[in-house]
Amino acid sequence: MTVLVAPLLFIGCPKEDPPARPRATVSSTARPKTPAPAVVAEFNGERAMDHVKKQIEFGPRPPDTEALAKTRAYIVNELKSYGLTVSLDEFTDGTPQGEKKMANIVAEIPGETKTLVLITSHYDTKFYQNMTFVGANDPATSVGTLIEIGRVLASRKEKPKVTYRLVFFDGEESFCEGWSQCGDAESPDNTYGSRHYVSQLRTRNEIENTRAMILLDMMGYKSLELGRDPTSTKWLQNIIWQTGRELGYGKVFVDREEGVGGDDHEPFLGAGVEAVDIIQLTSYPHWHRADDTIDKVSAQSMKIVGDTVLASLPKVAEYVIKNKAQPPSKPSKIQE
Length: 336
Ligand SMILES: [Zn+2]
Hints:
Layout (H helix, E strand, L loop, with lengths): L1 H11 L8 H5 L19 H13 L8 H16 L3 E11 L2 E12 L6 E7 L13 H20 L7 E7 L22 H12 L6 E8 L8 E3 L5 H13 L6 E5 L8 H5 L4 E5 L19 H24 L14
Helix pairs in contact: 3-5, 3-9, 5-9, 7-9
Bound molecules: zinc ion.
């Protein structure tokens, strides 16, 4: 696949250098007629890596622990320092370990319309009784990337066409060892935060306005390769994969199928919200192991995904605005 993609980069890529005309002809004293564009931040992989280090320093971070409370305070403070409005979506839910207090973190970048596009990650780590699990890639890299995406979006002076919300979910991981070992279809032992957030969107009559949900989960591995989750919404996945390839990351955004089995995008798909999971699961050998540590992840991988998501957002906004007249899609069938 990647061999076929390479030549296309030269045909269709608008991100290549612009024509040299202005630089070649404008004299040093001439002032450009258009004002200089406002200074906007660029995604910085090193900053994302700093957020990864901070999270790991807090230790294992399962729901309703001191370490996760510290992580939450860190994320909230970072987002606020960029000038974003941040709120907590707090709730309590029954788990195989009893009642747990959880909180999703929500930051909003207001747009010209109330049409919502969510960019998301979970921020809890999986509970282990007898293992120190710090989750460098699961989920510290997706959290670090999402914080950095927030900084970039906050730095932009112009209002986006749609409203973006960054949502950091609590309680994605199951408390029992296996994903669906405990709980049942009515109340699964996983995706606590995303299920609660979907219920909040319903309560506030926002579900029909929520036109796309982009989930980042385990996308910071040094040997980054992102296959396609078959349950994700095709048009949304296609925009992101195509954009990644246009940016020169054809070897990262590949077409092989990535079996996921369940993640925070599922409750959204079930509610008729179109959603995509950007995840490297099957080829990440350190998944849910004590060696999911900082040496396995890289600033470069986070920048690849951060830049690709940021470059995809205007196209996603354009798509959802163009298709505004359509009712929300029917709930996608979750493939067995
Ligand atoms: Zn996990």
